[in-house]
C-alpha cells in the first residue's frame, strides 16, 4: 500500500511539473517580412547572465522554446544571428505565440590570434608557439624545447610527461629515424613556427583506428618550406682550440635533407647527435636497430664527473653526416643516411677504491693516464610506404666501430702497468615488414637478418694473476684474444582484426641465433711466448631457436582502454664447448603475460596501471668455461648451463594537463621483484683483483620507485617552472668471498628549474639538482652519498646588437676532501644584422678549476675518483645562419 502511495505521489509531482512548463512559440522575420533561419533563441531570468535554455529557428523562421522556470513572472528572450542586430525582449512566463522583426546588420567577429597564445590544444595535438618562448640568447630549436612545460630533455633525449617521445618529425616527415639530435642542435629556432606534441599518436596509418597508442610524437611546424641551417667557425687558447660546424638543411614539401660537418677540441662530443633514441615505427614493425656486439675486454678507467662534459672532456673529434628523405607520388618514402666520426680522447685522474669483504677492507690507488681512438661508420637505406591500406618498410644498415685504447696506471704509487686494447665490431642488418588488409583482416609479415663480427684483444704489461696462470711466478706480459661472430634470423606473422570494440592480434615468430666464440690467453716472459691450454681458452659454438606465439587483445570503451598480451615461447638450445656437447637438444619454455589499463577521467586527467611477469632463460653471452681476462685486474669463467630469471612488475601512473593554463603533471609508482636460480660469485685477492664465476644458489631482488614531475607556465611574468623528483628502494643478494650478503640501497633526487624572460633586457634561469644515496654494505658497513648542484645563468641585452651571458655553476657533495666547486663561464655576443652573423667571445672555466673529486659505491666497493678538468680557455667564434 505504501509503495502504491509513494509512486502515486511521484506521478502527481511529475505531472504537475510537466503541466507547469511554459511553451513559447513564434516566428522571426526580416524587414521585408521574409523568414529568418538559424537564429539562436535563448532565455534567462531578467537581470541574470546565466542562460537557462535555447533553440534555433527553422527554415520558415519558426521557433519553439520551453520555459522550465516557475519562480518568475517574466523572462528575457535573446535573438542572435551574425547578419542581424541582436535583439532582447521581455515576455510573460506563460504559453503564447509571438512574431518579431530583426534588423539587418553584418556583425564582425573580433579577430583571435592563435599565435599570441603560448600553449593551446587542438584535439590530441598540443601546440607550443615558439615565439612565446624565444629569448634573445636562443639560436637553435633545442634551446626552445628544453623550456617548454610538460617537456624535458635528458642528455639529448626528449621526454613528454616523463616518457620518451616515439617520433621526431619536421613538417610531418621523420627524416632522422631517432637520430634527432642533429636537427635539434642545428635547426635555427626562428625557422620554427610551432612545436607540436601529438598525444596518443599511432604512426602506422593502418592501425589508426585499430590499435590504441599511448605514446607521443613531436612535430616541428616550420614557418615555410625553406633551406636553412647553422654554421660556426671558432679559434681559441689555452691550449690551441678550434670549433667548426657547417650544417645546412633543406625542408621542402616532399623532400628534406641535412648535411653536417663538425670538428672541435673544446670538449663538445658532437657524436651524441648521432645517437638513436628510437627505432622502428610501432606496433608490428621488424626490429631495425643493431644489437650491440659483446665487449669482453676493457682497460681500467677513471670515473668521469657527473656534470657538464665540456668542463672535463679532452677530445679531438671529426664528424661528417649526410641524411635525406624523398616522398614519392606513389606514397613511398625513401630515406638514406651516412655518418662517420673519429675521436681522439685523453683521460687522466686518480681512483682510490675500498673493497669491503667479510674479513677485511682492501684499499688501493690507481693513477690513470689513458688515451682512446674511437671510430664509427654508419650507412643506411630505407624504403617505407605508410598508408591506410598498406604498410611496407625495408631498411638496410651497415655499421663498423673501431676502438684502440692505451692505458697507463701507477698502482699503489710504485707499480707501473701498461694496457693496450684493440676492439672492432662490424655488423650488417636488414629488416622487412609488410602489412595488408585481406578483407577486414590485417595481415603483417616481418623478417630481420643480422650479422656481427667482433674481434678484440687486450695486452697488459707486466702480467697479472700470477698464482692463477703462471704458478705464482712474475712474468712480463699477458694477452687476451677474443673472436666473436653471430648470426640472427627473425621471422614473424601476425593478424589483427577489430570486432566491435575489441581488437585481436594473434602472432607467431620463429627466431634463430647462432654464435661462435674463440678465445685464448697468452703469456710472455722475455722472448718466450706461450699460449695457455685447458681452462684458459674457449672454442664454443651455440645455437638457439625460439618459437614465440602471442595473442594481443585491446579494447576501448567509453573512458577505458585495456590492453593484454599473452606470449608463450618455446626455446631450443645446442651448445658445444672445446669439442664437447654441453647442451644437446635442450628445451625450455617461458610465459610472459602483461596487461595495462588507462582510464581517462576527463580531458585533463588520466590514470593508468600495468602488470607484467614471467620467466626467461639466457646466459649464452656468459656461457664459457674457459677463463677470459676482461681487465687487468678482473678474470672470470662461467659454468655451462642455462640461467633462469623470473620477475613480476607492476606500476600505476597519473597524468594531468591543462593546456589553457599550461600546467602539466605526472606521478608514477612501480615495483619489480625478481628471482634467479644462480648468483654471480666474486673472489677478491689481497690486491683487490677479482675472479668471478656462477654459483648455483637462488637469489632474489626487490626494487620500488616513485617518480613525479610538475611544470607550469606563468604567462603574466613569462616564467616556466619545472620540478621532477625520484624516490627508490632496492634490496639484492650477492656473493663475495663465499659470503652471502644482502645489499640495501635507497636514493632520493629532486630537480627544480625556473626560466624567466619577462624583461627584454634581462632574462635568466636557475636550476638546482640534489640527491642522496644510502648503501648498506657487508658486515653492517654503510655509506651515504649526498650532492647538490646549482646552475644560474643571466642574460643581459643592453642593446639589440649586444648580448652578455654569465653562466654560474656550483657542485657540492659530502666528500670530506672535496670542497664545493664554483665554475663561471661568460659569453659576449655582437650581432652583425646585415649578414645575420654573431661574433662571440667565450671564456670557460674563468676560475681555472683543475680537478674534481667524487664518490660512489657498488655492491662491495667504495670509490673516490679524482679527475683532471679542462683548464681556463678562451674562444672567439663567428656563428651564422645558413
Helical/strand content category: mainly beta
Name the average pLDDT: 89
The helix content is under 10%
Question: What would you call the shape?
Answer: globular
Overview of the molecule:
With 882 residues, the chain is mostly beta strands. 4% of the residues lie in helices and 64% in strands. The protein has a 26-stranded antiparallel β-barrel. A five-stranded mixed β-sheet has the order 8-9-14-15-13, with no helix packed on it. A four-stranded antiparallel β-sheet has the order 3-2-5-6, with no helix packed on it. The radius of gyration is 34 Å and the shape is globular. The termini are far apart. Mean pLDDT is 89; it is low at 1-20 and 111-115.
Amino acid at each position: 500500500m505504501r509503495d502504491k502511495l509513494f509512486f502515486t505521489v511521484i506521478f502527481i509531482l511529475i505531472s504537475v511539473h510537466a503541466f507547469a512548463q511554459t511553451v513559447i512559440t513564434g516566428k522571426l522575420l526580416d524587414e521585408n517580412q521574409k523568414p529568418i533561419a538559424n537564429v539562436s533563441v535563448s532565455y534567462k531570468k531578467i537581470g541574470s547572465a546565466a542562460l537557462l535554455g535555447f533553440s534555433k529557428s527553422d527554415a520558415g523562421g519558426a521557433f519553439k522554446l520551453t520555459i522550465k522556470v516557475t519562480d518568475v513572472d517574466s523572462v528575457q528572450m535573446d535573438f542572435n544571428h551574425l547578419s542581424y542586430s541582436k535583439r532582447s525582449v521581455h515576455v510573460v512566463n506563460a504559453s503564447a505565440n509571438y512574431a518579431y522583426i530583426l534588423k539587418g546588420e553584418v556583425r564582425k567577429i573580433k579577430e583571435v590570434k592563435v599565435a599570441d597564445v603560448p600553449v593551446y590544444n587542438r584535439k590530441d595535438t598540443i601546440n607550443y608557439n615558439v615565439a612565446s618562448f624565444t629569448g634573445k640568447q636562443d639560436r637553435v630549436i633545442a634551446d626552445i624545447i628544453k623550456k617548454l612545460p610538460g617537456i624535458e630533455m635528458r642528455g639529448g633525449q626528449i621526454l613528454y610527461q616523463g616518457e620518451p617521445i616515439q617520433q621526431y618529425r619536421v613538417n610531418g616527415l621523420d627524416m632522422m629515424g631517432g637520430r634527432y639530435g642533429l636537427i635539434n642542435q642545428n635547426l635555427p629556432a626562428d625557422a620554427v613556427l610551432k612545436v607540436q606534441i601529438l598525444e596518443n599518436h599511432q604512426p602506422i596509418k593502418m592501425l589508426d583506428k585499430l590499435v590504441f597508442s599511448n605514446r607521443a610524437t613531436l612535430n616541428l611546424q616550420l614557418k615555410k618550406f625553406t633551406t636553412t641551417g647553422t654554421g660556426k667557425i671558432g679559434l681559441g687558447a689555452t691550449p690551441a682550440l678550434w670549433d667548426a660546424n657547417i650544417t645546412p638543411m633543406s625542408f621542402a614539401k616532399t623532400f628534406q635533407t641535412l648535411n653536417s660537418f663538425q670538428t672541435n677540441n673544446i670538449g663538445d662530443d658532437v657524436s651524441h647527435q648521432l645517437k638513436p633514441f628510437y627505432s622502428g615505427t610501432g606496433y608490428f614493425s621488424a626490429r631495425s636497430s643493431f644489437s650491440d656486439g659483446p665487449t669482453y675486454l676493457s682497460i681500467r678507467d677513471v670515473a668521469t664527473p657527473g656534470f657538464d662534459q665540456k668542463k672535463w672532456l679532452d677530445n679531438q673529434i671529426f664528424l661528417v653526416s649526410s641524411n635525406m628523405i624523398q616522398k614519392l607520388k606513389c606514397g613511398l618514402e625513401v630515406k638514406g643516411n651516412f655518418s662517420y666520426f673519429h675521436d681522439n680522447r685523453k683521460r687522466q685522474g686518480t681512483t682510490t677504491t675500498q673493497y669491503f669483504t667479510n674479513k677485511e677492507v682492501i684499499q688501493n690507488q690507481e693513477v690513470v693516464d689513458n688515451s682512446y681512438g674511437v671510430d664509427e661508420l654508419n650507412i643506411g637505406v630505407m624504403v617505407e610506404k605508410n598508408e591506410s591500406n598498406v604498410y611496407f618498410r625495408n631498411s638496410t644498415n651497415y655499421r663498423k666501430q673501431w676502438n684502440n685504447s692505451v692505458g697507463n696506471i701507477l698502482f699503489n704509487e710504485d707499480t707501473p702497468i701498461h694496457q693496450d686494447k684493440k676492439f672492432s665490431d662490424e655488423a650488417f642488418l636488414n629488416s622487412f615488414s609488410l602489412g595488408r588488409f585481406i578483407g577486414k583482416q590485417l595481415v603483417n609479415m616481418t623478417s630481420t637478418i643480422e650479422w656481427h663480427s667482433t674481434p678484440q684483444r687486450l695486452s697488459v704489461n707486466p702480467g697479472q694473476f700470477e698464482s692463477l696462470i703462471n704458478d705464482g711466478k712474475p712474468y712480463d706480459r699477458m694477452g687476451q684474444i677474443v673472436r666473436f661472430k653471430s648470426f640472427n634470423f627473425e621471422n614473424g606473422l601476425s593478424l589483427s582484426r577489430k570486432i566491435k570494440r575489441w581488437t585481436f592480434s594473434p602472432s607467431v615468430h620463429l627466431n634463430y641465433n647462432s654464435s661462435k666464440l674463440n678465445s685464448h690467453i697468452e703469456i710472455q716472459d722475455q722472448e718466450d711466448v706461450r699460449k695457455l691450454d685447458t681452462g684458459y681458452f674457449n672454442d664454443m659454438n651455440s645455437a638457439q631457436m625460439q618459437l614465440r606465439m602471442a595473442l594481443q587483445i585491446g579494447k576501448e570503451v567509453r573512458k577505458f582502454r585495456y590492453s593484454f598480451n599473452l606470449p608463450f615461447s618455446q626455446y631450443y638450445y645446442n651448445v658445444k664447448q672445446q669439442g664437447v656437447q654441453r647442451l644437446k637438444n635442450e628445451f625450455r619454455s617461458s610465459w610472459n603475460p602483461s596487461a595495462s589499463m588507462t582510464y581517462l577521467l576527463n580531458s585533463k586527467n588520466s590514470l593508468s596501471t600495468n602488470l607484467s611477469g614471467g620467466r626467461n632463460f639466457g646466459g649464452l653471452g656468459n656461457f664459457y668455461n674457459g677463463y677470459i681476462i676482461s681487465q687487468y685486474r678482473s678474470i672470470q669463467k662461467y659454468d655451462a648451463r642455462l640461467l633462469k630469471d623470473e620477475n613480476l612488475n607492476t606500476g600505476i601512473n597519473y597524468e594531468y594537463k591543462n593546456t589553457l593554463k599550461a600546467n602539466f603533471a605526472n606521478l608514477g609508482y612501480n615495483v619489480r621483484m625478481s628471482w634467479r636460480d644462480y648468483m654471480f660469485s666474486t673472489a677478491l685477492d689481497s690486491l683487490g683483483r677479482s675472479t668471478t664465476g656462477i654459483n648455483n644458489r637462488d637469489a632474489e631482488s626487490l626494487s620500488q620507485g616513485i617518480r613525479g614531475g610538475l611544470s607550469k607556465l606563468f604567462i603574466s611574468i613569462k616564467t616556466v617552472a619545472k620540478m621532477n623528483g625520484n624516490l627508490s628502494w632496492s634490496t639484492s643478494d650477492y656473493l663475495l668471498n663465499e659470503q652471502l650478503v644482502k645489499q640495501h640501497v635507497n636514493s632520493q633526487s629532486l630537480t627544480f628549474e625556473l626560466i624567466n624572460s619577462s624583461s627584454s633586457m634581462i632574462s635568466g634561469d636557475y636550476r638546482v639538482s640534489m640527491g642522496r644515496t644510502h648503501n648498506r654494505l657487508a658486515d653492517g658497513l654503510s655509506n651515504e652519498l649526498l650532492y647538490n648542484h646549482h646552475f644560474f645563468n643571466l642574460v643581459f641585452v643592453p642593446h639589440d646588437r649586444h648580448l652578455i651571458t654569465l653562466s654560474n655553476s656550483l657542485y657540492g657533495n659530502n666528500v670530506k676532501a672535496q670542497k664545493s666547486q664554483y665554475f663561471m663561464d661568460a659569453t659576449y655576443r655582437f650581432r652583425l644584422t646585415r649578414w645575420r652573423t654573431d661574433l662571440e667571445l667565450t671564456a670557460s672555466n674563468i676560475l681555472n678549476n683543475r680537478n674534481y673529486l667524487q664518490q660512489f659505491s657498488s655492491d662491495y666497493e667504495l670509490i673516490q675518483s679524482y679527475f683532471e678538468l679542462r683548464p681556463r680557455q678562451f674562444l672567439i667564434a663567428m656563428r651564422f645562419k645558413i
